[in-house]
Amino acid sequence: MADDENKSEPAPRDFAALRALIAARAPNLPRRLTQVASYALEYPDEIAFGTAASVAQESGVQPSTLVRFSQALGYEGFSDLQDVFRSRLRDKVPSYEERLRQLREHGIGASKTGLLLEGFAETAERSVRDLRVKIDHAVLDQAVDILASADTVYLVGLRRSFPITSYMAYAMGKLGVRNVLVDGIAGLGAEQIGFISPRDAVLAISFTPYASETVSLAQAAKSRKAKMVSITDSVFSPIAPIADAWLEIVEADFEGFRSMAATMALAMTLTVAVAERRGR
Q1: Hey, what CATH class is 2-90 in?
Q2: Which residues of 201-230 are buried (b: 16+ CB within 10 A; e: fewer)?
Q3: Which one of 10, 39, 184, 204 has the fewest CB atoms closer than 10 angstroms to its CB?
Q4: Higher-confidence residue: 116 or 270?
């Protein structure tokens, strides 16, 4: 039956889809296959360039386990799975110049502003629709409890996530929720997070490719025994396993530009819910 289920849908041919599949299957994978999955996502280059024997030795399993793992995900064998890891090296996150070039190649130039608006609006709608369907309300309530119980909420989200945390700092301030926006200005992120205590909580936000500054600051806060809520895009995100509650968001994109609509909707939800909970 398991083999029939695996063959019912084609195996993912890109790394992001493979990672999502492993996240969905992780709770039901046998221990040895989970061991391979963890190694593969932690050391994807080793999977891409290694042999079955070398990968098996490094991950602490038998070569036959690699074949079982590959077939459990719908692949013909380990070499078929390797192709996805090799394609990952070719499919780098495009630069903004590449994204604009892609727009031009698809005929969406400066004179086609209406098409851009339609594309970005549809992408935002799709992101919010997916959020409403997939959000785990029990985890959402747990996140609100953690943040509402904190003396101070530390907001950590740099680079692409900074508009979200800066909005939350503004809104929480207006709603009377004590918070610290960790902005890392002048390289003082570590000093800003250094005041956190076990009575506080941190909200960390990061998406692929994960901002190293956000990850290190979140880990520093966790080492100081603070409670943590994470918003990220995968169970294999570096800020997911260290969180007391983590919320998954996968934003849709238009021509390589990812929406922030669902993340902002979730940020507004958390902000108002925390203020209401504390107001009780």
Answers
A1: mainly alpha
A2: bbbbbbbeebbebbbebbebbbeeebbbbb
A3: 10
A4: 270
> Which one is the CATH code of 133-279: 3.40.50.620, 3.30.1330.120, 3.40.640.10, 3.40.50.10490?
3.40.50.10490
The pTM score is 0.65
Quick: pLDDT tens for 130-174. 999 889 999 999 999 999 999 999 999 999 899 999 999 999 999
Q: CA-to-CA distance for 260 and 252, rounded, in angstroms?
A: 9
* pLDDT for the residue numbered 120: 87
Cis peptide before 209 (omega within 30 of 0): yes
Query: Exposed/middle/buried for 255, CB within 10 Å: 0-12, 13-18, 19+?
Result: middle
Higher pLDDT, 45 or 13: 13
